[in-house]
Structure formats: C-alpha cells, structure tokens
Write a structure and sequence with these properties.
Shape: elongated
CATH superfamily of the domain at 71-233: Glycogen Phosphorylase B
Number of helices: 9
Strand content: 5-15%
Number of strands: 7
Structural class: alpha/beta
Helix content: 25-40%
Radius of gyration: 21 Å
C-alpha cells in the first residue's frame, strides 16, 4: 500500500529501488521481525510461523488511571445494577436512528440499564430522551468503563473486542465489515458471547435474545471472567516493549 511513497523516498535519498521480495527483510537479507498485537488465548500462534513472528498479546494504553469521566456518568453507574454498554464507535450504519430505536426497544423489553455511546455517528438518539435506566454519552475510555458494566455490545473492531474481553465481560458483536465478523466468530467459539448479529440482521428480537443470554448464562459469564484474567496477566504492551528495547 505504501510502496510508491517508499520508492519516492528512496529515490530522494539516493537509494536504489528494493526488490518486492525484500520488502519484509533487513538490508542484509534477514527477515524483519513482526510483532502481532493479538492474544494467543484468542487465536493460538500457528505452528508454522517463523521465529521472527512474535505474538505479544493485545496492546492497551494505560487510560484507566485518570479517565476524568463526567460526574453524571459516575453517578449513573453508582445508582443501580451495572448497565450494558452499547457502542459502534465511528462506524456509520445505513440508518443510525433506526439502530438506536432497535436498541432502546430491546432495552425496554429486557429491563436492563444501559449506556449508549454515540461515537462519531454510529448511534443517533434523535429526539430520544434519557431516562432513569438509559444514559447517552459521547465516549469514555473503555479500560475504565468496561470493568463497571455487565456486558458490552459493539461492532467487533479488534480494539473494542480486546477491551471487552480483558475486562472479563461477555460481548455481543454486531459486525459491519472487515475483520469484525472474524472477531465475532472467535468470541462465539470461546463461549464468551453469543453468535454475532450482522448489522443488516439486527432486530429487536435478535438483540433481546442476545442480551438475555449474556445476562443469564452463568457459564458464559464465568468463561468471560476467566479469559479476562488471562488477558490481563499476559500484558501484551509490556511484551512488545521488551522485544523492541531488548
């Protein structure tokens, strides 16, 4: 993807073009080490990978120490049962308002408390007013918020998936495209969440069923808690730093 810019830079700096076969090799021909920021507890490291392919575990910024959340959010969290988090980040669906209404109706039917993160347009509350059991927020650090909720409902991006799993919470993944269905399948395979619900198949009924599952399936909740502890102990960020600086 960046080959044209690399060639231009090499030309400007008096270097010859590199052979396509050497793009992943050092000047002396040795393979360039590649760090993979995912966890072996989610996807085992393939046995045929070379030693230069290092699986470190997920990488997280240490955002939980000073999140500076609004007082209204901390007050909402302390007022009752841990809520369910809903958020699709910056991913725009075909009709964010309709998706929001589906979520609100599923919340009403299941009786859960909920936090809805608007993101950059993934959810649109329209004229929907907040209530005693529902709160809309722009965003909040996942590392701080997710340990305080009962479950997370999201689009299945790698980062959000990792944040929900390391928090030890069951996940409901509603993928749009790209790698999101992939992570949804692994969440289901590990029994830390129900079957993913593609956005185009998201209905009140399917979401209600998924919410009931993550709230009441004790085995699923325990699986998520155990996996969360394993991911936390793995500390992928420190593993990556140790390799780079070592």
């Amino acid at each position: 993807m960046m080959s044209k810019r690399v060639r231009k830079w090499r030309r400007q700096n008096g270097l010859d073009p590199r052979s396509p076969g050497f793009r992943m090799r050092l000047p002396d021909g040795r393979p360039i080490p590649a760090l993979h920021g995912f966890s072996r507890h989610i996807i085992p490291r393939p046995e045929d990978w070379p030693e230069t392919a290092i699986v470190t575990g997920f990488w997280f910024l240490n955002q939980a120490e000073d999140p500076d959340p609004p007082g209204s959010l901390t007050e909402f969290l302390s007022r009752g049962e841990p809520p369910v988090y809903f958020g699709f980040g910056s991913i725009f669906g075909r009709d964010p308002k309709q998706v929001t209404q589906i979520i609100l109706e599923a919340i009403r039917r299941t009786g859960v408390r909920a936090i809805l993160a608007r993101g950059w347009g993934g959810l649109d509350p329209g004229d929907s007013a907040q209530s005693e059991s529902v709160m809309f927020i722009e965003a909040a650090p996942h590392g701080w918020l997710f340990p305080q909720v009962n479950a997370v409902v999201h689009h299945g991006g790698c980062g959000t998936t990792a944040a929900g799993l390391v928090a030890g919470k069951p996940s409901i993944i509603c993928p749009f495209f790209g790698d999101q269905p992939f992570w949804g399948r692994h969440v289901e395979r590990l029994r830390v969440g129900p079957s993913p619900i593609p956005q185009k198949r998201l209905t009140v009924e399917s979401l209600c069923h998924a919410i009931d599952t993550v709230m009441n399936d004790t085995t699923m909740r325990e699986n998520a808690a155990v996996l969360g502890r394993r991911l936390h102990e793995e500390d992928g960020t420190s593993n990556a730093v140790a390799f780079i600086t070592g």
